[in-house]
Amino acid sequence: MIFYQVNRILYKPYVIYKFLRKVHTETLPSSNILYPLRNRGLLKVAGDDASVFLQGLITNDMNHFEEGAKSVYAMFLNNKGRVLYDTLIHKWGAESSFLIECDRKLITILQRHLKLYKLKRKVDIEDINKDYSIYALIALNAPDISDDKINVYKDPRLTDLGYRIISSVDAKDSEVAQTVGKDVTEGDEDGYKYLRYKLGVSEGSDDLPPGTSFPLEANCDYLHGVSFHKGCYIGQELTARVHHTGVVRKRIMPLKFTETISNIEQDSVISASNNPKSNLGKLKGFVNNYGLGLIRTKEALDAKTLKVANYSAEALKPSWWPIEAPKEVPKNE
């Protein structure tokens, strides 16, 4: 009876989750760090039809903004259900105005994509990169600022990713750091990328080349970036089908290498160390001793040790992934 009660407590999903969160959080930065994101760009979509227009193009639900959300994570897909652009969409000023944040290299292509579907809708699509800068603030708390110079948004994906800061381009990094909190230190883009890779979060065209992966493979569902209850959007049919079958064999996962990496080609094959001919996935990028791979989840976790080029690594299951509840221990045990 005592054994059964102990098992009931220890095997509860939230107990396991709290434990993993504690262990995982100890590896993340403890201080407040501001990372400039020069590789991110902004498009402004405004007009009476802006919300309805975007609703038919993205994986997430624009109605979240009517419910009080300031930002949502969303992906634009092609008609085959593959990811074209991963984005953060921020509420901006007027009621029918939004900023789409994405990889700076894809801004022109995304703008062209939006104009293709604009038709006669009352929507203006504007590239505003020359006017604003983007930052990531890793901190437990941040001031609620929304003015002409600085706007603060909570990252809608994970608490560990902190906040997004959109500031006027004439504000210096040091000025932004002083405005958003005390004892804020300034980092660089590699530092933010390293944090993302430790968490197992993909972002931008280097991690997700357009047209090569599906949204659930990029953990869009785990990162609150897809709605399975909204109406139609481009690429919805296949996304919904995969979700309802419950079978996603490959996902973006963090890789921890046994040493600091100096050079590996992108899309290098990831194999099990005990079976060099196996193909479990591809490497998407690396920073220091962490990488990001699109990997066959079960096989990679079962393999324990993986091989990427001449380096050894381990696939890690992120603590923020949903935890499956184990079967209840029978009472007669």
TrEMBL record:
Listed GO biological process terms: iron-sulfur cluster assembly
GO molecular function, one term: transferase activity
Pfam families registered for this protein in UniProt: Beta-barrel_CAF17_C (PF25455), GCV_T (PF01571)
InterPro entries: CAF17_C, GCVT_N, TrmE/GcvT-like, YgfZ/GCV_T_CS, YgfZ/GcvT
Subcellular compartments: Mitochondrion
DNA-binding found in the keyword field: no
Stretches assigned to the CAF17 C-terminal domain: 249-322
Keywords: Mitochondrion, Transferase, Transit peptide
Domain GCVT N-terminal: start-end pairs: 41-137
Entry GO CC: mitochondrial matrix
UniProt KW Mitochondrion keyword: yes
Main location: mitochondrion
Listed name of the protein: Transferase CAF17 homolog, mitochondrial
Species in which this protein is naturally found: Bicyclus anynana (Squinting bush brown butterfly)
Gene name of the encoded protein: LOC112044344
